[in-house]
Amino acid sequence: MSKQIVGVVGAGVMGIGVSQSLAQAGHRVLLLDLELDILRHAKEEITKNLRLQRMLHKAANQESIGEIIERITFTTDYEPFADADFVIENVVENWDVKKGIHNKLDSICPSRAVFAANTSAISITRIGSATRRPDRVLGMHFMNPVPMKPTVEVIRGYHTSEETLTIAQNLLASMGKKGVVVNDMPGFVSNRVLMLTVNEAVYLVQDQVASAEDVDEIFRSCFGHKMGPLETADLIGLDTILYSIEVLYESFNDSKYRPCPLLKKMVDAGLYGRKNGKGFYTYR
Ligand code: NAD
To answer: pLDDT for 106-152, tens place per residue?
Structure first.
């Protein structure tokens, strides 16, 4: 695939990983967030991650970290998006915010540009409805940490065209990743199961059935999972978990998705997991 200009909206946990993977694949990246401080932090994180990757995998003919970073334009301005071939949106899991951004992208980006929403649970068909190009909108549910995860859940919205899916699969292939295509329904495949599991695991801690350590130990030792559900929740971000389970609750109107009060309390207390140092476990 020829090198593309890819806009990435949102420079949080996912936007950082997506931008790094795109730049390493040789694409030009426009990374946008609300504030320069957030973008500064994103640049530091990408540099740190690339250094770490270098230490762990010493491959021949590696480009310099500077060359990779140079492909990323860090911006708070949508103007450069007028040249984007593809946009991957990774903002907070909130319908109103995502709706506003897709609406704006639609008015600024060329009509050929494809929009991929990296969302945990929001319907892709609904996101497509915020644009005048729903056939060119799809879901790309990347896994965290993005540079280390080879598979992406690709979501076909009601109007998503085959051509759009092919363009997206080609972009993923250029990044060394494979997409598994599923049909649109809130939470898709992965998070309809994972969010319920995590939420129920939080209930176990709230109900004092077991400590977080013991819940995770059972999943690791008995089921052979690499990480338990509460370690996974800390990695994803407890705020993102809460917003996702709330989306599922509202989307299906089914009480099985009611968020655990302890999860709400932890988010209210500012315990977001790894990204700010404290969740079910303490980091740093
Ligand atoms: P995050 O909270 O780390 O980052 C979100 C970023 O969006 C922040 O930097 C914030 O400043 C930015 N943002 C908010 N409003 C904005 C706006 N109006 N314009 C531009 N930027 C804005 O969240 P995250 O974990 O990176 O998740 C991003 C999306 O990816 C969410 O929809 C989430 O559900 C999904 N997702 C997360 C994971 C995960 O493991 N964390 C995995 C797959 C998908």
So the answer is: 999 999 999 999 999 999 999 999 999 999 999 999 999 999 999 99
Question: Would you identify the CATH topology of the domain 191-276?
Answer: N-(1-d-carboxylethyl)-l-norvaline Dehydrogenase; domain 2 (1.10.1040)
What are the DSSP calls for 211-244, one per residue?
A: -HHHHHHHHHHHH--SS-HHHHHHHH-HHHHHHH
Question: Cα(53)–Cα(162) distance, rounded to whole angstroms?
Answer: 35
Architecture of domain 5-183: 3-Layer(aba) Sandwich (3.40)
Say whether pTM exceeds 0.85: yes
Provide residues with CB under 6 Å of ligand 1: 9-15, 32-34, 38, 90-93, 97, 101, 118-120, 141-142, 144, 236-237, 240, 244, 275
- Domain residue extents for the chain: 5-183, 191-276
Q: What residue owns the CA closest to ligand 1's atom 15?
A: 91
Q: Could you tell which of 90, 122, 153 is best to mutate to test the pocket of ligand 1, judged by most ligand atoms within 8 Å of the CB?
A: 90
pLDDT digit string, tens, across residues 216-234? 999 999 999 999 999 999 9
CB 143 within 8 A of CB 182: no
